[in-house]
Amino acid sequence: xxxxxxxxxxxxxxxxxxxxxxxxxxxxxxxxxxxxxxxxxxxxxxxxxxxxxxxxxxxxxxxxxxxxxxxxxxxxxxxxxxxxxxxxxxxxxxxxxxxxxxxxxxxxxxxxxxxxxxxxxxxxxxxxxxxxxxxxxxxxxxxxxxxxxxxxxxxxxxxxxxxxxxxxxxxxxxxxxxxxxxxxxxxxxxxxxxxxxxxxxxxxxxxxxxxxxxxxxxxxxxxxxxxxxxxxxxxxxxxxxxxxxxxxxxxxxxxxxxxxxxxxxxxxxxxxxxxxxxxxxxxxxxxxxxxxxxxxxxxxxxxxxxxxxxxxxxxxxxxxxxxxxxxxxxxxxxxxxx
Length: 338
Hints:
It is a single chain. By secondary structure, this protein is mainly alpha-helical. Helices cover about 80% and strands about 0% of the residues. The protein has a two-stranded antiparallel ribbon with strand order 1-2. α3 (about 110-130) runs parallel beside α6, α9 packs across α10 and α10 (about 285-305) runs antiparallel to α11. The two termini are about 40 Å apart.
């Protein structure tokens, strides 16, 4: 509480000086207390009035310090929540890859399946860093929070795939559903802390779907529409399964895939916005480019090894993987020169 005593001294001294000289005193205090302005209303204050000013200043500083402590506490919970969920997402991705080694269907499907929690881990880690740096108010992180929430809601359905099972694959579904559940709270808290306004932010996202300012932005926008189209097809698939009365477990498998496409759409949209502003050299956007490149690469590999006759989708996925990878490398090179 040393900061309380220091702030108390500054404000008390400011009040006493104002009482004798009749000027406006502004204490240059950092954080929430920097908004406190002490205005002297009288140049003739003596005895008890000075004591009252001192007590008032003390109460004001303590309340401000408590508010700062509360904000720090919220930030710490957000950081811890994202750190824990990131760890669980990574564990899930590694477990899926391990479980797929030597399987009858090869590595195409396991790698693509693992890319979902891998991407979620990366985005969650990005939000963790933003929370630590007090940058959650940026549109970049608010949009990432919205799309990560969509992934988490889809991820919760994997508990249906785990119930009653004892295999490693089913246990991994438990871990993924737990990671998704634990990620919801810090994501929502960070979005709220950053001043997110749901309808306004959704409107901003929709607007990004129809604008670009340069060639890089145009190519990213192509990636956004490519993944968004796959997402729409997945929604149609889910609706058809529901109308046919399929089991909940079948729907859960589609929901997981939907969540992965939703989050990839979000990362590409954020990268498109950064490209429009020539901001791709930022650490956040380098990380998102790397993450997106890996997901697109696994998508191309999966389509090539599992499906037949979908060459255009393979080429498109591989193309966007190469594009995002090259942008990440170029951004790192340019950043190292500064």
